[in-house]
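Repro:
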Amino acid sequence: MHTGPAGIVYKHFEKVTDPRAYRGPTHDLHEMIFMALTATMCGANGWADVERFVDARSDWFEKYIPMESGIPSHDTFGRVFAKLDTGEFLSAMHGWVDEFAGNLQNKGVAIDGKMLRGSFDKASGKSAVHTITAFAVGTRTVLRQMSVDSKSNEIPAVPLLLQLLELDGAIVTLDAMHCQTETAQAIIDAEADYILSVKGNQPTLYKYLLNKFVEFAESDFTAEGLRRLITREKSHGRLERRTYYTIELSDEDRKVLKRCSRPFPRGNWGFARIEGLVDMVSWTEPQDNRVTQIWRRL
């Protein structure tokens, strides 16, 4: 009987087919999956690492699984996992990760693209691997990940990635590349909220919002309904102060945003309010050595 964290793993992975033909006593597949997942979460980077980790923590593992056949060798781990049905394992993995991440209501989910360092091979002409990742900020968990052919292909991949997630009530953040009506619509369809950076790839929208916040600045940010939030934190060896301003949409705002959506008939922005990061000031300690970097952007 699997208990505790092993019970959760068994619940999600019980339908994963064991690829081995029965030839006498073997290591239980679900025990092996539990061992591999636990070791990987603790930093194991290969099957030899997994074997060493389980051996060093065998007393802990025995609290949750019988381990009647002992600890599998790294070769056994490699052979068994290489033969698993990828679709079955991925589906089970998604269910387990979702339970581990917990309820995403009012929680942040960051969508970001990365190029895997060292994944290119000049000799064979192999380009670097690009991935797009959905990351649960609160639990620091990768919820989903997809590979894409190149960075330019991230844009159509994001709506597909969003379809794999239960985002009801979540707050999805994306960079300016993904400021697209199709992406906004996909998030709205998932009953989630979003925060999108607006830059030059949406020139009409960018110019409108920039002028709007310039007007706010000229009135010393005293416009009715305009709210401000100031945060201070230490990050990457710097002290940072960020000032945010947010305001509900006016009828005029909605008309302009609707016009901005016209080239994209398959989606709309669905804005409820607009927010501007007016400035970010960062400096190194001590404070009188103030190396300031002021970003004025939306």
